[in-house]
Amino acid sequence: MAGKSRYNDYNSYLRSLFNERVQKIVIDSGLTCPNRDGSISSGGCIYCNSRGSGTGAFSREESIQQQVEAGKKAMKIRYKARKFLAYFQSYTNTYTSCEHLKSMFDKALSSEGMAGMAVGTRPDCVDEEKLDLIASYTADYLVWVEYGAQSVHDRTLALINRGHTFGSLERAVEMTRSRGINVCVHVILGLPGEDRGMMRETALELGRIGIDGIKIHLLYVVKGTRLETMWRNGAYTCMEQNEYVEAVCDFIERLPENVVIQRLTGDPHPQELVAPWWAERKSETLGMIRRRLEERDIRQGDKRHA
Asked: Which contacts (CB < 8 Å, 24+ apart) does range 169-174 have?
C-alpha cells in the first residue's frame, strides 16, 4: 500500500504494473453452471437468477470479438483507456472443454491493447489440464482466476445451495497459485445465518490460504430467486447500510496487506433489485466505507492474525 492509502486497491495495483489506466471488459461466453444444469443442482445458488450475473450479450448473439470491441470503444471514451483486461464474468467460465476454453481466450486476447484476462469460475470446476492451459498465457499476459467462494463456512455454503465446500476452494487455490496464476476470491457479506464474527473468520481464513485478490459483495435480493421468496416470507433480513460498512471495515482489517482489494460492494441491475434499497447507492456506500476506515483508524492487515 502506497502513501496514505488504507487498503491495497485494484486501480493502484494495475497502474503499478502498466503505468497507466487499465479497464476490464466484461465478456459473456455463453457457458452455464453445474449448479444449474443438473450436474450438481438445477436451482443454482439461492441469490442467483437466470442471468447468472451476466450481461446477456451471448443470448443477443454478440460474439466474443464483438463484445471486446464494443467494450474497448466504451472504455476509451469514458476513461481514455488504452489497455484492457478480458473479464469472463457470467456463470462458470471453465465449465467446458480445454479446446473451447482456448478458443474463448484466444478470441478475447487477439484484439489490440489486450493486457490480460480474468476468468470467473467455481473452485470445483477446475482441474490440472484447465489450469495448465490458463497458465500458458501468463508469460505474455496478466492472468487472474476468480473463484466464487462466498464464505469459508460449510454450513453457510450448504444453506445457500452453493454445491461445494471450503475444502474445494483450498484445493483450487493451491493448484492455481502453484502455476503462477493470480487468485481472486469472491465473498458475500450478509449471508443467511452469518454474524459479524463469522464474516471476520472468512477474512482470516482466506488470508491463511494465500489468496492474491478479493472482491467483497453485499448480499442483495433480486427478482426470481429463492432468496426473494425467503425475504418476502420474513425468513431473511437484509443488512442495513451502516451494518454493511462496519462489516467491510472488519474484513479489510483482517486481510493481509498484499491482497489486492478489487471490489468493496456489488452492482445490482436496477430493474432486478428487490432489496435493500440502498444497494443502488454504490458511490454513497463506498464513501461511507472510506470515511469509516479513517474514523476507526483501520489499515488493511492491522488484525490479520486476530
From this structure: 169/123, 169/209, 170/209, 171/123, 172/123, 172/124, 172/126, 172/147, 173/123, 173/147, 173/209, 173/210, 173/211, 174/209
pLDDT value of position 141: 98
Q: How far apart are CA 126 and CA 113, in angstroms?
A: 28
- Is pLDDT above 80 for 58? no
In one-letter notation, the amino acid at residue 38 is G
Mean pLDDT for the stretch of residues 138-160: 98
Reading the block at residue 199, the C-alpha cell is 464474516
Helix, strand, or coil here: 178? Answer: coil
Q: How far is CA 20 from the centre of its chain?
A: 23
Cβ atoms of 120 and 263 within 8 Å: the answer is no
Among 43-52, 61-70, 287-296, the range scoring the smallest mean pLDDT is: 43-52
Helix (H, G, I), strand (E, B) or coil at 54: coil
CA 207 from centre of chain: 16
Q: Quick one: pLDDT at residue 59?
A: 64
Full DSSP string of 79-143: H---EEEEEE-SS-TTSS-HHHHHHHHHHHHTSTTEEEEEEEE-TTS--HHHHHHHHTTTTTSEE
- The torsion of the CA quartet 222, 65, 95, 259, rounded to 10 degrees, works out to -70
Cα(125)–Cα(305) distance, integer angstroms: 31
Residues 68-127 have pLDDT tens digits of 999 999 999 999 999 999 999 988 999 999 999 999 999 999 999 999 999 999 999 999
Write the DSSP string, 222-257: ETTSHHHHHHHTTS--PPPHHHHHHHHHHHHHTS-T
